[in-house]
Write a structure and sequence with these properties.
binds acetyl coenzyme *A, alpha/beta
């Protein structure tokens, strides 16, 4: 089989209608707009409607990506959903999306959970499967209803997260050296405790006591996560540039995971690449975990910030602690 490139054929995003501003949060916890903006850069986030699920948001983003690619659900034979907030603990959100979207029953559908790095992991998995020649067209979705796993009485976390979804359609091209040029993924499994949901898994099933203590919600040691995030994102970005013998200034646009403006500014400093080369929308969505990069990618494309021939760098970190970067030539 001749080598082929795996290319992004279309992108789409979806954000729920309801906007929760920082001012709105001050009615819920002891916080202020000034604290949230100076510590994180976040001004507002979207919150799913009652009954609106992770799979519903993923379907909306996927429809837009399929429209953009000029393809129909029937064309898709592989679906990977990156999420840490699936509709159900079991089965995968991808199975629910398959049904709602009307993908063929012959499509392979599964979830990837690498928390906020999930989209970069899922993209790598889908591209590798397409490169094998056994699949033709893939949908990769990042979708999260984080409002359902956030403790709305914990001001240290609830101000940071939001809901949403983004999606890309991937296919192959005989043209060499375009599309996904490479990835650099990694994990620090010794840092699970820094960011996790302590209860509700098979090791510590939920009990009335654990639910009363709120330990089925996200717990985070923010300062430690911040330091590690800056280090691993910088390393993941440098490593992939080095692997491809590129300088940072050859990257037209960096699409970083949108967790905190200060983390993005630190990466900009470390890479000596000005902030105008970074796409930022954390102010409008907060941290949407696996949805953050595909939402940003879609907005960047539709805003004309990505042109044919451009090099885009994706870089992310998340619970696990996972991290990853990906290089795309358009
Ligand atoms: N409003 C007001 N005060 C607050 C709030 C709030 N929402 N939250 C915490 N504080 C207080 C703290 O109680 C603390 O008070 P104290 O000094 O009296 O104890 C003070 O503010 C400072 O808190 P710090 O935690 O030191 O604040 P920091 O400057 O580290 O900023 C933040 C906190 C924004 C969480 C930062 O550490 C951060 O962004 N960390 C990374 C988090 C992240 O990116 N997580 C996503 C991971 S991706 C994934 O997989 C989900």
């Amino acid at each position: 089989m001749p080598p082929c490139s795996t290319v992004i054929l279309g992108t789409g995003a979806y954000a729920p209608e309801r906007i929760l501003t920082n001012a709105g949060l001050t009615d819920m916890v002891d916080t202020s707009d000034e604290w949230i903006v100076t510590r994180s850069g976040i001004r507002e986030r979207r919150i799913a409607a009652p009954g609106e699920t992770t799979s519903d948001m993923g379907v909306q983003a996927a429809r837009r990506a399929l429209d953009d690619a000029g393809l129909a659900p029937a064309d898709i034979d592989l679906l990977v959903v990156a999420t840490m907030a699936p509709d159900l603990p079991m089965p995968a959100a991808a199975c629910i999306v398959q049904h709602k979207l009307g993908l063929p029953t012959t499509a392979a559908c599964f979830d990837v959970n690498a928390a906020c790095t999930g989209f970069v992991y899922a993209l790598d998995v889908a591209c590798a499967m397409l490169s094998s020649g056994r699949y033709r067209k893939a949908l990769v979705i990042g979708a999260e209803k984080l409002s359902s796993i956030v403790d709305w009485s914990d001001r240290a976390t609830c101000v940071l997260f939001g809901d949403g979804a983004g999606a890309v359609v991937i296919g192959t091209s005989p043209q060499p050296a375009i599309g996904l040029l490479g990835t650099r993924l990694g994990t620090f499994g010794d840092s699970v405790d820094l960011l996790c949901i302590p209860n509700g898994g098979s090791n510590t099933p939920a009990t009335p006591e654990s639910i009363a203590a709120g330990s089925h919600f996200i717990k985070m040691k923010g300062k430690e996560v911040f330091k590690l995030a800056v280090r691993v994102m910088d390393e993941a970005a440098r490593d992939i540039l080095e692997q491809h013998q590129l300088r940072a200034d050859q990257i037209s646009l960096v699409i970083p995971h949108q967790a905190n403006l200060r983390i993005i500014e630190a990466i900009s400093d470390y890479l000596e690449l000005p902030m105008d080369r970074f796409f930022v929308n954390v102010d409008r969505y907060g941290n949407t975990s696996a949805a953050s990069i595909p939402i940003a990618l879609d907005e960047a494309r539709r805003a004309g910030r990505i042109k044919p021939g451009d090099l885009t760098l994706l870089v992310a970190f998340g619970a696990g602690l996972t991290y990853g970067s990906a290089l795309i030539r358009w």
